[in-house]
Amino acid sequence: MLKTGFVTRKALAEWRDVPFYLPEFQFHEKHLAVIHTSVPEKILSAVTEFDIRQDRVIRALMLVRQFPQKLRFNPPDEAFNSFGLHSFTPLVSSASELCFGLRGQFWRADFGLEPVPNACAYLEPGSAKLLLRYRVRQLMAGQHELCTETFIYCPDLATQCRMAAYWLAIRAGSGWIRKRILMAVKAKVENSETTPGVNK
Question: 109-139: per-residue pLDDT in tens?
């Protein structure tokens, strides 16, 4: 059922490149972009520097996501309003890969995020987990592929059922956000090589 983002036990058993920090998961999403650059080191730097609030489409989608919280007459706190890559716990950082983690009850109106100070805390059992992975690989000289993947693990059937309903509701919007991020990173990296005065 990978087309819908649901991962079966059989698919997981045959999966290649399972994330070290999340070897089991029931949900998965993947998006790709081809970036033309002679300096591939810029790609992951552009990922970490991107602020989702810069993009009007992503801002609009995040406002929709906040709507249930506002209906409760309970304004979202600052952490919720400023949600972005900085909200995640860094797990892996190398020249070709970045991984970030979240723990919580993602289907709740406020995300139900838990404080995760480090990778060890992320590995502790008991909660639903999300792992966001960015990977860069060379296709040919001057051409690189940026891949973003989302993995989600639920520790029990009840949690998995809640997550499944939420996943079906937000997957299209989540995918759109990932594609917008890839587009923005691609534009920034490629423009930096064609714009005079930009450091290469």
Answer: 778 889 999 999 999 998 999 999 999 999 9
In this prediction the pTM is: 0.87
User: What is the number of helices (H) and of strands (E) in the chain?
Assistant: 6, 5
Whole-number Å distance between alpha carbons of 104 and 88: 11
> Taking every pair of C-alpha atoms in the chain, what is the biggest distance, in angstroms?
55
3-state DSSP helix/strand/coil % of the chain, to nearest 5: 45, 25, 30
Domains and CATH numbers, the chain: 2-193 (3.30.530)
CA atoms within 13 A of residue 23's CA, in its CB half-sphere? 4
E strands, the chain, are 27-36, 89-93, 97-104, 128-140, 143-153
